[in-house]
Amino acid sequence: MDCSDSIAFPRRLAALQEGMERAGLDLILLFDRANVRYFTGFRLNRVISSILAIPRDRDPVYLVAQLDLERAKRDCWIERIVPFPEDTPNYLSALAPLFNDKVRKVGMERDVITLAQADYIRELVGPGCELVDVRPLTTRLRAVKSPEEIELIRRAAEIADRAMGEVIDHLRPGASEAELSALAECRMLREGVEGVSFEPFLMSGENGWLPQRISSRKLLQPGELALLDMGAVYDGYCSDLTRTFAVGEVDAEKRRIFRIAYAAQQAAIAAIKPGIRACDVDAVAREMIAAEGLGEYFPHLTGHGVGLSTHEPPILDRDVEMVLEPGMVVTVEPGIYLPGVGAARVEDMVLVTPTGHEVLTATPRELV
Amino acid sequence: MDCSDSIAFPRRLAALQEGMERAGLDLILLFDRANVRYFTGFRLNRVISSILAIPRDRDPVYLVAQLDLERAKRDCWIERIVPFPEDTPNYLSALAPLFNDKVRKVGMERDVITLAQADYIRELVGPGCELVDVRPLTTRLRAVKSPEEIELIRRAAEIADRAMGEVIDHLRPGASEAELSALAECRMLREGVEGVSFEPFLMSGENGWLPQRISSRKLLQPGELALLDMGAVYDGYCSDLTRTFAVGEVDAEKRRIFRIAYAAQQAAIAAIKPGIRACDVDAVAREMIAAEGLGEYFPHLTGHGVGLSTHEPPILDRDVEMVLEPGMVVTVEPGIYLPGVGAARVEDMVLVTPTGHEVLTATPRELV
Fold this sequence. Notes:
The structure is a homodimer of 368-residue chains.
Chain A: H1 8-23, E1 27-30, H2 33-40, E2 50-55, E3 61-65, H3 69-75, E4 80-84, E5 105-108, H4 115-125, E6 130-133, H5 135-143, H6 147-170, H7 177-190, E7 195-196, E8 201-204, H8 206-209, E9 225-230, E10 232-234, E11 237-238, E12 241-246, H9 252-271, H10 278-291, E13 303-305, E14 312-316, E15 329-332, E16 335-338, E17 342-345, E18 348-352, E19 357-359
Helix pairs in contact in A: 6-7, 9-10
């Protein structure tokens, strides 16, 4: 998705500008990497920042590090590109020309902008400055994916499937957690992805039910449950996939918690269709696990949206009333972490379709 | 470095508490991942947050996500560990018990804490709240590495060397930038690292001088310069290494900019010893490149500290007066990006020793 040959980006920006008008914002400053990429289409190294500024009545300005200027000019559709110096505390001074007497109400991401950045912006605006959270506007735009976005998410999901298959092929007692998750990561990298969508983790035995959420040097032991959670970033879009494995033969209690976690996941997926609320999908999984007396061992959300971010709305959890719509993509991943026994979780990516849903990840789900 | 079997962490915390006393802070809240790890020794998945709270006259409190609680209790030396709920906007409510009438002056990282977090803390403190940047205190502690830290940095550097060697072995016209940087990344992962210290990038031809700072699908062409910048994270500690390659035969102008960049790097390294200011090391490289008429094509810093973060003080750049001390570890990496010609940069990691310096990375530096 080269941003120069697409009309998607200007259209997205126009939609944001409409919301900006309704919210009475004088200026929007986007710092969040995924938000900036959504509107600019411009890929940056993950350690490098940029800022997209959208004044009310003027063209957008894209602020990039001095070193990224020439590439942004070559590759990005936005016409006004302004450099800022890197590695200096006053890099935000490049923002100053965007401010004038009429700028009072500034939209930005309250969960991303730092205190140092916020204080600097407050100083630029002066008395009467109002910093307003712009997340509601961007979330609404990003939650429903376009056909082009869904295509990229499918590719990311397929790559995760192939990496999971490679780990399944190499699963054996005596392999280390780190070795197997590195295998998954390397397979994804060899497929030409931008990177992993998060630090993958394979956790086995006690590390599973704690849960550990990192891959350690621990070796897999016969009779343990092991769980791998991972995903890729393909042209900016993320995948997220979990499977649970039996290392050698596992006992009946381990098979039981797997069976319950898997059944709860399948039931929650079956409930996904346009019009259902996120909390209602969550309730399906949560109630099934609770009915087996294991409710307290399912301590997290049922799922989350996935796109340019690995975790984004809609969050499938208690109290989340957001209504699912066609084009949304969510994970479904209820889990059970039973001390002394093990951890079991099956996670798939699910697209909401006009008539129901489609599961985007395909690795076999049964305990292997 | 398992934090349970070490006295390093309590000692570091005691040093911070001394600084806290001098600065008159009532409470310190650390959100920065590297800072938290420095004092807790606790490894978390890179996508997961935690907070270390240090009240003035009481024991420290480590706030971790509910899911990380049991593992933190097992693995972390800190006694008071408090869980917070994940994926909810009000996760900071776990901080509330730390506040009382006497807490007014709160130290935190202004460049990391978000506006949402800062506003929540201001509300907890109430009128008279003062949020003070705690970076000067933590920077001072972290800039000089202990022998144990230097050992881990050496390991991270050795792993980067081996990954660079593997790329050199596979360098050939027709290979893609992404394929070769994936090769480096996979090699590091197979060595059991926690991950890469930043998104590695191999940039060739025009992508080099722009510069691109990401690995694309572009194929290497005979006659181009190519440059790979990458590093590993070993037990929390980062490495950072760059080499420049000739793809097939390259012309005299490309060889010339390489020779100048390499000579400037060697001269800057030679200047490193206790007592020299960061800006003076920078000046050595900058003046050599300027003397060749290429000053405007060296648009970044000469180097930076490296440790639990890939980029940390001391920054070797203009105007940085920080004085180098034994135990500091810095990169030295002046570069030349000449439009129409290519990019050349050699980067090594250098330890400041009592008598001078020691170069920690060892991959051959000549153009291959």
